[in-house]
Amino acid sequence: MININILIVDDDQDIQRLLENYLKKLEVEKINFTDTAEKTYKLLNINNLKSDPVVDLIILDIVLGAENGIDICRKVKTNPVYQEIPIIMITAQKESEYLKDAFEAGAMDYIKKPVKKIEFMVRINSAIKLRKETKARIEREKELLELSKKLKKMNQKLEKMALVDGLTNISNRRLFDKTIKKELKRAKRENDPLSLIMIDIDNFKAYNDTYGHQQGDQCLKEVASVLTENTKRAADFAARYGGEEFAVILPDTAKKGAVKIAEDIRKEIMELELEHENSITADCVTVSLGVSSICTDQEIDQQLVNSFIDKSDQALYQAKENGKNQVVYQKFE
């Protein structure tokens, strides 16, 4: 149910009582009374531009002693809170020349004195109906706005989920593909080096066969955490590339810095001391790493992106061929 609160602004108590009796026959929650401009502004909290309106309909005498109801109407309507609140002017016949000014000030309608019950009831009921429709619309708009915010938040969450590996909680292959191309373009634009580390867990199939897939998943998480620890700069990027393979993108990093970070990663994974009794490399989990760096003025197309990734993959393959648990660097040319 939509509640309606009404304000009667009139300095004639007999008129106040008469209008109150009429209004009690309509669907009105509360009737307020003021008899001066000052009291009206205070009740309406007119200087607050952010609060909800105090009333839903204002019945305003066009003359309040020495005060002008049109000026009150105009000031009320300057507050955005009250721009949609209907104001109905009460006027004596001799004041009809003021009606044009009243409408220009924001009044919606007028009722002549002496007030006739039927006319009053019809006009007020029409204003109440309009206000209820307006309040219902505003409420729907609020609900739609709230729903829109929830949907936006949900979409952002879904978008993030689509770019994050569900197991390790680091970036996934999809985001890697976007990021490597973006960083290559940035490196070319700023004439900076860019390095890529491809990482593969040694003998991972044997690890899964020995300890089970659940423990294998935990191993992947532990490796991902080491990568996160070693990609501390804002632009550094670590991702799960697929299966037991990971990738690290290092902007503004040349060979020396990239090889050091790769070696740090290799050592820290060994320091995890994840038992691997069936490894042919060591008695704990180890990784092989392939590193490549680029500084180019070539066009950054998909062919160049693929070639850069392939070069790091070739370095990784060489590390595997050389006995695993090591870092191999190959220059991109």
Automatic annotation (TrEMBL):
One of its GO terms (molecular function) is diguanylate cyclase activity. It comes from the Bacteria. Keywords: Coiled coil, Phosphoprotein. Residues 137-164, 255-282 form a coiled coil. GO terms for biological process: cell adhesion involved in single-species biofilm formation; negative regulation of bacterial-type flagellum-dependent cell motility; phosphorelay signal transduction system. Residues 5-128 form the Response regulatory domain. May play the central regulatory role in sporulation. It may be an element of the effector pathway responsible for the activation of sporulation genes in response to nutritional stress. Spo0A may act in concert with spo0H (a sigma factor) to control the expression of some genes that are critical to the sporulation process. Residues 192-332 form the GGDEF domain. The keyword Phosphoprotein applies. This is Stage 0 sporulation protein A homolog. InterPro entries: CheY-like_superfamily, Diguanylate_Cyclase, GGDEF_dom, Nucleotide_cyclase, Rev_trsase/Diguanyl_cyclase, Sig_transdc_resp-reg_receiver. Gene3D superfamilies: 3.30.70.270, 3.40.50.2300. The lineage of its organism: Bacteria, Bacillati, Bacillota, Clostridia, Halanaerobiales. One of its GO terms (cellular component) is plasma membrane.
